[in-house]
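Design job #97: recover the sequence.
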């Protein structure tokens, strides 16, 4: 599973303090989780489960939902399951986590009433069960889905930078194929102009850089992207990337050149990857380097209410299989840090392009 096996993020004392109960209450719930009655006790049981002190607890005669994930594909998957788990505990819904390759076997075993996918499954019509896709792309109209409005999130980052006096903002994203079933809109070349137009900022194609990039080619491609940025005439005063992992290359090179963040240049990303480092089973070196960037990157985060919305949509489909497919987009949480600041009218201290 994507959740770290046996990983205890919080101690018993920390769980008691977080829920406002005594340590003895925590131990009573640990011994008899089925006797939980109050919302406060449910919170304790939920934290015990999330920290692997308890196995997942399923009330009898409750609706069962299967949360289907891809192994190691996206950094938010593990944390999203915890969001779902919290909602399901409050509503007395059974929630089971499984990986995609095991989904057919799990369906036979637990007989779920519906499925929540954390990605767009190719053969979604083959399941013959109500399903909801979370964080899908433009093609989500083919089934009921709930996702993050990443275009609005990036526009908000541009708006904040404009408020701080920035007028030339550089944008980088990996190049995605619009024909694929899963892709974030922020990674589409044709969407880039939106960020500038919405904020009444001058648009110049040279300010947008899109490159094909894979984990294997990441360092080489990002080195070229930073070179491209440094060689731009009338160098931009701010950078926004489609993901926090793409900020690390700028941080490293700027530190070598003596360019200060945010005094000389402001940087913002997307995904709030720092928040999810405890949920990753095996982070790759690129992701690990992104955890410790200083100052922490201004970013957009997955909102917790996305889980409640997904559950509502799925229960609606379970109650009425003929209900029309819906696409719901939720505004991401914008996390402002000191990686962005007011524009430096004098320009960076080091102006070297190498």
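Job complete. Output follows.
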């Amino acid at each position: 599973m994507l959740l770290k096996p046996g990983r205890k993020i919080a101690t018993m004392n920390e769980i008691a303090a977080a829920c406002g109960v005594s340590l003895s209450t925590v131990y009573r719930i640990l011994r008899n989780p089925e006797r939980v009655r109050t919302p406060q006790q449910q919170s304790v049981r939920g934290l015990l489960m999330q920290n692997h002190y308890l196995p997942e607890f399923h009330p009898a005669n409750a609706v069962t939902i299967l949360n289907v994930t891809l192994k190691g594909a996206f950094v938010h998957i593990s944390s999203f399951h915890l969001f779902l788990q919290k909602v399901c505990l409050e509503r007395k819904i059974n929630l089971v986590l499984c990986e995609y390759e095991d989904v057919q076997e799990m369906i036979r075993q637990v007989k779920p009433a519906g499925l929540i996918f954390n990605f767009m499954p190719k053969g979604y019509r083959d399941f013959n069960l109500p399903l909801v896709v979370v964080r899908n792309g433009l093609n989500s109209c083919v089934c009921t889905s709930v996702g993050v409005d990443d275009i609005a999130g990036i526009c908000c980052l541009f708006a904040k930078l404009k408020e701080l006096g920035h007028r030339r903002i550089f944008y980088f994203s990996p190049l995605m194929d619009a024909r694929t079933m899963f892709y974030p809109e922020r990674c589409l070349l044709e969407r880039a102009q939106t960020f500038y137009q919405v904020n009444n900022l001058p648009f110049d194609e040279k300010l947008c850089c899109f490159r094909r990039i894979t984990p294997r080619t990441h360092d080489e491609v990002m080195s070229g992207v930073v070179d491209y940025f440094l060689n731009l005439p009338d160098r931009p005063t701010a950078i926004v990337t489609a993901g926090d992992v793409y900020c690390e290359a700028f941080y490293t090179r700027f530190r070598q050149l003596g360019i200060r963040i945010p005094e000389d240049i402001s940087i913002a990303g997307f995904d709030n990857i720092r928040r999810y480092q405890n949920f990753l089973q095996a982070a790759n070196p690129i992701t690990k380097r992104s955890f410790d960037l200083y100052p922490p990157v201004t970013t957009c985060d997955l909102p917790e209410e996305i889980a409640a919305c997904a559950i509502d949509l799925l229960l609606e489909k379970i109650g009425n299989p003929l209900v029309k497919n819906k696409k719901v987009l939720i505004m991401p949480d914008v996390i402002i840090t000191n990686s962005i600041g007011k524009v430096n009218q004098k320009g960076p201290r080091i102006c070297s392009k190498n």
